[in-house]
Structures are given as structure tokens and as C-alpha cells.
Design a protein that fits this description.
With 332 residues, the chain is of the alpha/beta class. It has one domain: Glycerol-3-phosphate (1)-acyltransferase, CATH 3.40.1130. Helices cover 45% and strands 14% of the residues. The chain is built from 14 helices and 10 strands. It has helices spanning 6-10, 14-22, 28-31, 42-58, 64-78, 105-117, 129-135, 139-144, 155-164, 169-192, 213-216, 226-236, 275-283, 293-308; strands spanning 81-83, 94-99, 123-128, 147-152, 196-199, 242-250, 265-269, 273-274, 285-286, 291-292. Strands 1, 2, 3, 4, 5, 6, 7 and 8 form an 8-stranded mixed β-sheet that branches. A two-stranded antiparallel ribbon has the order 9-10. A hairpin with a 4-residue loop joins β9 and β10. The longest helix has 24 residues, at 169-192. It is globular, with a radius of gyration of 20 Å. The chain starts with 5 loop residues before the first helix and ends in a 24-residue tail after the last helix. The model is unreliable at 326-332 (pLDDT under 50).
Amino acid sequence: MKKLTVPQLTQLSAAELVDGLSRGEFSILESLHCKKLLRGTKGAKIGAGAAIAISKFVAKSKDPRDQRKALSDTLRHFAPYQSQPLATDISNGGIILAFNHPSLGEILRLIEYCSGTFPKRRMLFPVTLVWFEVLAKYKEFLESIGICITPTVTPNAISEISETAPDSIDAANEIRQKLNDYYLGLACDFLKNDDIMLIAPSATRQNYIYDSSKQMHGDDPIKPETLALIVTSLRQKKLMNYTILPICVVPPEMPSQGLNLFDEYILAPCDYIPSSQAEQLTKKKVGSAKVREIELFYRQLISDMLVQYERSDIILRPTVTIDVEDPWRYYD
């Protein structure tokens, strides 16, 4: 693996960046002097390799459908979940599957869910740059069975790069724009072919649906406005044949933000949002922060489902009033 200079890195197109990472030719994070962001990911890389090796061994044949089912069945032993059937079948158009993201654990369960519910449809998973570099060597196999991963650079990643290597932040922002545009292009291709794109509108792991009570009413901003961005991009590309399917992830009690292996999750489909409704919701702004209504509408659907499953504890981030006279007593 060679280490590119920052100017060499920024000269590459998004496709060249993705291909180079997939072939193990270079590391974007290492070239940006941010290799330490990869610390703690070795176990996940080993686990992914083991799951893929087992699925290849137990698959009935080399047929991609058999291998995809084998991977799903393998994951089910380590990442159990239960779900409800869809109230209405989505047979026409692409699907934007939007889910709350309390941990890494739902990613494995969603692969299983989509493999079982939509066995003939490909999946597009945007993953953070860190996790793409971890999983890049498996990209070719995953694509062969209908699971496409593509790197994105989230606002949280930009903050981490800024703290780790401030001199690399301009290059990181340039790469972010390239990779995110590349992802939106892929998303359009998937939706045109009636496939699935999976997104966490929070763009990062988040324990709660709302950060504040004001945010629930549009009086505090929601950043990023992921759904609004995607709907607007699809409209600009004149792509309207899609459905947004919100999936409420109900994690186990007291989960970590990791994979939570062997703990059971619930994946609960909410009422879907047709593209025409998504368009109207995206045009409207709510509250003093002028939040796009689609962001609040989606979060309300997720919150209503959490109430049904008696998990209202993860809807609103709790606030703590610090005792000014003795603030340290809260950290015993």
C-alpha cells in the first residue's frame, strides 16, 4: 500500500478513490495523516471476514442468490432480530429505507431483513470512510451478491479529521464533496432499477431521536437534513418513482453503540411515504429554525413506533441540570 501526498489524493476522481481503496492501493485516512481513526476496527474486520468465509462454505452453490441467503442465515446466528411484515407491498419503484441509528448492530440486522423481505433487490449502503476502509477488501464479493457499499464523509468525520490533522481539513472537505456526489449518483442508479438505498438520516450513530424538546417542533435545527437533501437531488434528476420506507430500530435494553452480538433487535416498518408526499413535505419548513417538514415527519413516525414498543426512553435526549455549587457530584 502506497501513501499518497495530499495533492495526489485530491487530484483523483471519486471513482478512482473508491477503486483504489477497494484494491488496497492506498488509504485516504493515512494520506490525510488520520490513520489513528482506524484504531479499534481490527476486530470488526476479522469478524466480517469470518462471516463471509462461513457463508461461502455453507452456500448451496456459487449462485449469488444462494450466497446472499447463506450470508443472511449466518448473520442470523450472531445478530438476531424480529420484525413485522409490511402492511402494504412495495412492488413498483425504488425504495429509500430510512432508519434510526442507535448502534452498529442494526446494520447486520438490516442486511438480513432486506435479504428476506426484498430478496431480488440490490442494496446500497453508504458507510463512513473509516468503515469503508475496513471493509473495502470485501466490496467485490458483497457487490456480487447484491450488497453495494460506498464511502461517505459525514460531518462527524470532518470534525474528527479537523481535530486529528487540521492541515488536512481543506483536502478532506474536497474529498467529502466528491464521495458524497458519487454516492448520490449511485443512489439514483439503484432507485431507477427498483433497488434499495439504506440511509440513517442522523448520518451518525445517535442514541436518541431528538436532541431537545425544541427540536421536536422545529425550533432547534436538525443537521444534516439528509432526507430533504436526497429528495431534492432526486427531483433535480427528475426521478420520482420511489417510496420512502421508515424502519424503526428498537435496540435491546442498555445497548452499546457497537454490534451487540447475540442481542435481539426489533425492526418495525412504519407507514411508508410516497414520493409525491415526500416532495410536498420537503418544500415546507417548520418552526423558528425552519426545519424541513420531512425531517420531522419521519422522526414522528419513528417515535410513534417506539411508543408502541414501550421504548419512549430513547425518543428525547435527557437533560441534566448541573449544580453550580458542586458540579462534580454528578460524576461520582
